[in-house]
Write a structure and sequence with these properties.
- The complex is a heterodimer of chains A (126) and B (244).
- With 126 residues, chain A is α/β, with parallel strands linked by helices.
- The longest helix of chain A has 14 residues.
- Chain A is globular, with a radius of gyration of 13 Å.
- Chain B is 69% helix and 0% strand.
- Chain B is built from ten helices and no strands.
- The C terminus of chain B is likely disordered.
- Classes of the chains: A alpha/beta (126), B mainly alpha (244).
């Protein structure tokens, strides 16, 4: 199954997003990578790499990110990691929920899961 | 410079930069609190302290620079980690045959390209690219076109970076956290451009210490060299760093 990684500046925010997404798709491997190595606000390339490797069962990983350095840390982690992974350009919570649902589909690919996550950009709340 | 001297100079540069960041972290954080999330000084400080602890001092120049880069990547925790650290690690291979005027130009260009590529920023976005781009272009031209010695070229690069920092003050940020502030980002110098200038100043100062005796005095422009020396309040720091 396609794995998911949620990268956030906050450890608790990443865990919370994973919690919400797992409600919709408890089978999907959804791994948080939030905060720095010391648990401070920020992002850690090493944490993201570890999360990608944990989430990957061989089918690849889609990475969701919050702001700024989350994108750059995720890009570096993907470059350094042995696993295949792509970043979804999507809102974090809605994108993670969409991706989690899509990842449990029998024909899901890394690209199809990323596209589902990115479709969340079009969602209107009101 | 032989390999041994290159190792010493790199070690002294790391000490000088780490020390400068320690002294400026409050100032960098003030700059970042005006337009960002107020963590630039603390983040860089954490990264360079990790580099001081982790990097093997007797490594070859390329391995040394790569080690500094990877320490920054793992410890900075903000965008400066991949930007500073990732770019240092990427450009470090240019020093595989040692540090020369030519390889330092190649290093500077590879570093700039990686920063631009990673951050997606161009000149005028109010980022470190605004200090780095003129510095690298000026350095390359001074070495390759004007045939100046590395110390004069570095002094000119630092001047160019200083003008680059000044250029970031009146413009509006369109990249990074500062872009969320829109017009409120106007009127403040960019923290990343500022820390880039500090790094270049320290590199220049350590280079003065290590290269001055090596260069043929007749090949230099005396005025420029004097200026770069008198500009520099960190002489004592570099010496203490090199002596540790």
């Amino acid at each position: 199954m396609i794995g998911l990684v949620v990268v956030s500046h906050s450890e608790r925010l990443a865990e919370g997003v994973c919690e919400v997404a797992a409600e919709m798709a408890s089978d999907a491997p959804i791994v948080p990578a939030g905060g720095t190595d010391d648990g401070e606000v920020g992002t850690s390339v090493e944490r993201v790499m570890e999360a990608i490797e944990t989430a990957d069962d061989g089918a690849g990983v889609v990475v969701l990110v919050d702001l700024g350095s989350a994108v750059m840390s995720a890009e570096m982690a993907i470059e350094e990691s042995a696993s295949e992974a792509v970043i979804a350009d999507a809102p974090l919570v809605e994108g993670a929920v969409n991706a989690a649902v899509s990842a449990t589909g029998s024909k899901a690919t890394m690209e199809s899961v990323r596209e589902s996550a990115e479709e969340a950009r079009e969602l209107s709340k009101l | 410079m032989d390999r041994e001297t290159q190792r010493e100079a790199l070690s002294a540069t790391l000490e000088a930069v780490a020390d400068r960041i320690e002294r400026e972290k409050g100032h960098l954080t003030d700059l970042d609190s005006a337009i960002g999330d107020a963590d630039h000084g603390a983040n860089l400080h954490r990264g360079f302290q990790a580099a001081l602890e982790q990097v093997e001092r007797d490594a070859d120049p390329d391995a040394f620079v790569k080690g500094v880069g990877m320490a920054l990547v793992s410890k900075v925790g903000g965008a400066s980690g991949p930007l500073y650290g990732g770019s240092l690690a990427h450009a470090s291979s240019e020093f595989a045959e040692g540090i020369t005027a030519e390889s330092s130009v190649a290093f500077a260009e590879a570093y700039l390209e990686k920063v631009k590529d990673r951050g997606g920023a161009s000149v005028g976005d109010k980022t470190m690219v605004d200090a780095l781009t003129p510095a690298v272009h000026t350095y390359k031209r001074a070495i390759e076109v004007d045939d100046l010695d590395p110390l004069t070229a570095l002094a000119r690069a630092v001047d160019a970076a200083e003008r680059g920092v000044a250029f970031t003050t009146p413009i509006r940020a369109s990249k990074g956290r500062a872009s969320y502030l829109g017009w409120r980002s106007v009127g403040h110098p960019d923290p990343g451009a500022t820390s880039t200038l500090y790094l270049l100043e320290e590199i220049r100062d350590v280079a003065v210490e290590y290269l001055e005796g090596d260069l043929d005095a007749s090949a230099r422009t005396p005025g420029t060299d004097e200026e770069s020396e008198s500009d520099e309040p960190e002489d004592g720091v570099d010496e203490s760093g090199a002596g540790e």
